User: Fold Phosphoribosyl-AMP cyclohydrolase from Azorhizobium oxalatiphilum.
Amino acid sequence: MSTQTPFFPVAASHHALEEGTELAPRFDANGLITCIAVDAATNDVLMLAHMNAEALALTMQTGEAHYYSRSRKALWKKGETSGHTQKVSEIRIDCDQDAVLIKVTMGGTGAACHTGRRSCFYRTIPIGAAPSADTALGFTGDAPRFDPKAVYGGHDH
Amino acid sequence: MSTQTPFFPVAASHHALEEGTELAPRFDANGLITCIAVDAATNDVLMLAHMNAEALALTMQTGEAHYYSRSRKALWKKGETSGHTQKVSEIRIDCDQDAVLIKVTMGGTGAACHTGRRSCFYRTIPIGAAPSADTALGFTGDAPRFDPKAVYGGHDH
Assistant:
């Protein structure tokens, strides 16, 4: 599925950008906007990724999350390879329209992360000391739900 | 408060980066990492901002959110001007260590956004049609809790 060149105007003013009802996303120099995906039921952050204009337009149009892969330099429908689709129940945009938040219901095993875990944020950074050679990440207990090698083979996710 | 040059190693391998306990954040070409701040009690996404190495180190050390302002090109302790501090109860890092998630308790009025609202994500994008001249953002009802002009004056936040 593809769209025409998406209709995304530039905001007429700073006030319109922040207080208006016109969708005027500010894509960066690479044509991308940051997207946070959260679980629609629990609000847990699942992943952070990027969308280009086409990915944002397709997400709006289809209600299925689409992203732009910076490593593969390609539009990417989430779950295309792995079955871990994201049905989008809400899309939000932030004050200065350079970040998007989507609330999703995961398909497949419920794993949003290419490592097989539900969330990409499965490790904690300790608080209370400056970073040092002693700093050790902790694991949250979000265990892999599938074997990434079996799903993705040798390919980048 | 300032730190020595923060101790942030480079991961020895892709596997160490994603499955290890070594904190090896991948700052981008501008020396920044993306940070999502969520409300510690509700999980609601409050804002998205950036940290440089010093901001991340200070956040770890003090348990108070520090960011790097791209517009002001300066380290920024959240709430320095407005009183809307963020006490950090948890820090997480994502699979490929290029994004951080912090769980925070807001100070002041509870507004994380410079517009005076609790969350920067106070507008919704409609789902079900491609973007067009008819696309209209909705407001979530997250009303401003303070007058930004009174708090920030003519300055950038």
